[in-house]
Amino acid sequence: MQLVRGLHNLRPQHRGCVATIGNFDGVHRGHQAILGRLRERALELGVPSCVVIFEPQPREFFAPQTAPARLARLRDKLQLLADAGVDRVLCLAFNQRLSKLSAAEFVDTILVNGLGVQHLEVGDDFRFGCDRVGDFDFLQQAGLTQGFTVEAAQTVELDGMRVSSTKVRDALADADFALAERLLGRPFQIAGRVLHGQKLARQLGTPTANVQLKRRRVPLTGVYLASVDIDGKTWPGVANIGVRPTVSGDGSAHLEVHLLDYTGDLYDRRLTVAFHHKLRDEQRFASLEALKTAINADVAAARAYWQGQPLKKSLK
Ligand SMILES: Cc1cc2nc3c(=O)[nH]c(=O)nc-3n(C[C@H](O)[C@H](O)[C@H](O)COP(=O)(O)O)c2cc1C
Ligand SMILES: Nc1ncnc2c1ncn2[C@@H]1O[C@H](COP(=O)(O)OP(=O)(O)OP(=O)(O)O)[C@@H](O)[C@H]1O
Predict the structure, then answer these.
(1) Which residues touch 234 (CB under 8 Å, ≥6 apart)?
(2) Looking at ligand 1, which residue's alpha carbon is closest to its atom 13?
(3) Rounded to the nearest whole angstrom, what is the distance from the C-alpha of residue 285 to the centroid of ligand 1?
(4) Nearest ligand atom owner, CA of 27
(5) How far is the C-alpha of 212 from the C-alpha of 253, rounded, in Å?
(6) What ligand is nearest to the CA atom of residue 292?
(7) What pLDDT, on the 0 to 100 scale, is given for residue 311?
(8) Is 25 helix (H, G, I), strand (E, B) or coil?
(9) 295 lines ligand 1 (CB under 6 A)
(10) For residue 98, what pLDDT band results from cuts at 50, 70 and 90?
(11) Quick one: what percent of the chain has pLDDT higher than 90?
(12) Which terms are listed as keywords in the entry (predicted)?
């Protein structure tokens, strides 16, 4: 899959494609349905498929403090789009200039002059352009005069509710990982490289791998039973994700995981953490001693859980 960063990096050979536009945060089952149709149309027309995404996402640009936490970092989003068979991603910087483009200017500048789009695939609620004035009807009209077709994908629902990134966030906030998995079509996971921490964990008696998070905010916080994939091998563990109120004050999120029976060095390795069950909320403890007691109880709970779990059988 090819990544084109910015309109200015589009070349004449990029003209002619089928395209869709959106945030695609989490690449959930609704998104996957659109991507499936996009691939079909690309094959029919014999042109590449292109997904137009924005960085930052529009809500992050308009309201950085209140925009929801991302379900996946950009790197993972690109991997998921590649896995869905997308040929090209056009990643546009969402800035003042882009936010001011009218729906008509958006169509002219990006879709027609930039991409030479032949067919557009969108969700039925898709809105775009300054003040979100552009919609499916607008696109269809524009397509008639500018030579592209538009198709609205049917809404993907689960148990009567529209699948959405918001629903996935709600499921994670409720620690309903089974629902998150059904909405995503795969388990919710966070992947990242292991960084050096404050080296306090050893002092607390529980060594932890500090998984690098690229963003300050995360869609879930607390202490969880977790499993960790390292180079195709799965290990049972217990994870803490959040701001660590007892020890750190900068307010940014950390993900730390203790693997129950792992003794090797994990620094710089890439881990994938899957969450299974919430044990408790993060707490601010009065002393490191009290934190240590709580962590020991978490580890004991994790040990008891993983011993009795059928999942353990699948751990290689
Ligand atoms: C199972 C587990 C539970 C944790 N619970 C909390 C908590 O409730 N409150 C908190 O401030 N930190 C919590 N932590 C984070 C510890 O503060 C952190 O692991 C410790 O500060 C070590 O940090 P370091 O790896 O950067 O040295 C928890 C860590 C683990 C592994
Ligand atoms: N459940 C769904 N069924 C069909 N299409 C969907 C669904 N969810 C999102 N889409 C479509 O996928 C494209 C990309 O969606 P995008 O991520 O930008 O929308 P969103 O509204 O931010 O996402 P969400 O609704 O999931 O929070 C859009 O065309 C959108 O309409």
Answers:
(1) 227, 228, 314, 315, 316
(2) 244
(3) 10
(4) 2
(5) 10
(6) 1
(7) 54
(8) coil
(9) yes
(10) very high
(11) 84
(12) ATP-binding, FAD, Flavoprotein, FMN, Kinase, Multifunctional enzyme, Nucleotide-binding, Nucleotidyltransferase, Transferase
**pLDDT tens digits, 5-32:** 999 999 998 899 999 999 999 999 999 9
Burial label, 257 (beta-carbon count in 10 A; 0-12, 13-18, 19+)? buried
CB 111, CB 120: distance < 8 Å: yes
Instruction: Report, as an integer, the average pLDDT of 301-308.
Output: 90
How is residue 102 annotated by DSSP?
Answer: -
Atom of ligand 2 nearest to the CA of 125: 31
Per-residue DSSP letter, 110: I
Q: What is the DSSP secondary-structure string of 62-79? A: H-TTTSPPPSS-HHHHHH
Instruction: Please tell me whether the overall predicted TM-score, pTM, comes out greater than 0.90 for this model.
Output: yes
- Ligand 2 atom 30, closest CA: 123
Query: How large is the average pLDDT for residues 245-274?
Result: 90
Tell me the CA–centroid distance for residue 55 and ligand 2, in Å.
16
pLDDT at residue 188 greater than cutoff 50? yes
- Minimum mean pLDDT among 11-25, 65-79, 145-159, 205-219: which range? 205-219
Task: Please give all residues whose beta carbon lies within 6 A of any atom in ligand 2, as ranges.
Answer: 22-25, 30-31, 33-34, 122-123, 125-126, 153, 155-156, 162-166
> Encoding tokens for residue 287?
């002393």
- The distance of Cα 233 from the centroid of its chain, to the nearest Å, equals 23
